[in-house]
Amino acid sequence: MSRTAIIGGGPGGSTVGALLKKYMPEMDVVILEREKFPRDHVGESLLPTINPVLNELGCWDDMEAADFPIKIGATYRWGQSKDLWDFEFIPGQMFKDEPRPAEYDGQRTITAFQVDRGIYDQILLENARKKGCDVREETRVKKVHRDGDRVTGIEIESGDIIEADHYIDASGYSGILRKAMDVPVEEPSGLRNVAFWDYWQNTEWAVSIGVGGTRVQVMSLGYGWLWFIPIGKTRTSIGLVIPAEYYKKTGKKPREIYEQAVREEPLISELIKNATCEDKFATTKDWSFAAERLHGENWMLVGESGGFADPVLTAGLTLTHAGARHAAYTLLEIERGHADPKGLKEHYTKTQLVRVNQHIQFADFWYKGNGQFTDLREYTSKIAEDSGLKMTADEAFRWLSTGGFLNDTLLFAGVAEFNIGSLKMISQMFCGNDSTWEVGTNNWFKLNLAGVKEITVPTLEDGRILEVPCLLRDGKILPKFGIFNDLIEMLKTKRQMASIRVAMGEIAEGLMGEQEAMVDYLLELLEFMVLEGWVVASLKEDLPLIPYRTPDESPNVHPNRDPLKAKA
User: Fold this and answer.
1) CATH, residue 18
2) Distance from C-alpha of 276 to C-alpha of 297, rounded to nearest angstrom
3) For labelling alongside 334, which of 88, 123, 215, 388 has CA 20 to 30 A away?
4) What pLDDT digit, counting tens, does each position of 297-318 carry?
5) Sequence-separated (6 or more) residues with CB below 8 Å from residue 164
6) Is the pTM for the entire model greater than 0.85?
7) Nearest-5° angle of CA 353, CA 179, CA 352?
8) 568 domain residue, yes or no
9) How many domains does the chain have?
10) Angstrom distance (rounded) from CA 53 to CA 82
11) Please, are residues 557 and 88 in contact by the beta-carbon 8 Å criterion?
12) For 355-433, where are the E strands, in sequence order?
């Protein structure tokens, strides 16, 4: 019977452990956690892509029973305007009142949680324990024993040495195994931030939507930004992110800077008017980095041990859960005797590093696009200079997509959890000019599959890594299954946009969601196929043109419409 030793009992470690035991109960899994849960932890705002992982882990009901606020999106004061704007997973007016706890179904599959990490992490760790993991809290790792690139054991403070067949580093920023194995890291961003935060009791919510629904508040200041995240009925996390160099130049203490920030931001100061601070003030550095590799001979890095992206996009736990799931699936297939274990680990490293680097790149663009950072000109200018970010909306869109639109979610075309439409809208908002669409400026589309190679690409499903058919050309991949295959087959006979639109309407009838929204989704996939060279687009003067452009606002991205009191 094989054994897996996991350093760290947070979301990364507990997700790996629970999935290993779910799909291979006979495996021996030990989780070594240095602290005693529950304990507070920063990083409380989730994204909808975590929901299917929670459901797969079997702890959705426990999360719902905890009565965490439902996140339907975020309200920002950012960019070139001092006004508020909303980015929503589901438009607030479409969010239905329904009792809680609720099932993982309907609107709850496309919303997210805002969580008290003490409770959230404990639920996940107890879930791993219930599934049979040997969970050892208050167990600190003293030393990692190694022989070349192979881990031979983990020595804990008691002097005992834990030996295993596989080792997982889910120790977060500590990177215990990563450091022991001398894995270099890169810090590609030009901005080095620090975060200060505390918890508050009995704040007002900026907005209450239906039963338990709300939005995170992200408020830009001249020298940084504040987060306001309700994480329970009475508890709220409020934090400040500023550049480390700016902090040093102020000559002030962290708590002094933090208290000044929450007092001077008009919306947040109003929300905490009758609240009480818990005085659990904490600080951390949170600049972005990515490890050079995420695996070795018998070990893997999961979550923040292998990479971290600035928290402005609230993607930390998404990257952690997705990476942990992929790591668990990789070990499961290796244990089943997969013919190419090295290839599986290389796919894991490549996929997860693309994800974290996309988020880092996007976060840099987010900071560069903030016209409110009047006190941070030198820092955002440095980002722009290092990355070449003086660009039009179209140039920005293409720069953001340089890592490719596809990663481990082969049926989603986008970058860093943002679909193509959102990418274009955000680049347009930050760059101040219109972005164009190939599907809106052309009317003739010809499938281009010359020189392609048919391959299979790993995809994760029900505890197995399945090889799905794809096309490969010049390092780019086009899925040849599901909705992409429907588009490929359709484009074999349809070339004119007018007839393509009709055919897309027929395809949309078989998809979940409103037909108009599904046609937009199919147009985004066609846009991806043009941008990646799978389809050649052209304009024929004798054929009608059907315009398609990035709107100034959409049902999901629009100016804030909350009551005036929220615009204090």
Assistant:
1) 3.50.50.60
2) 51
3) 123
4) 999 999 999 999 999 999 999 9
5) 3, 4, 5, 28, 30, 154
6) yes
7) 10
8) no
9) 2
10) 37
11) yes
12) 414-415, 418-419
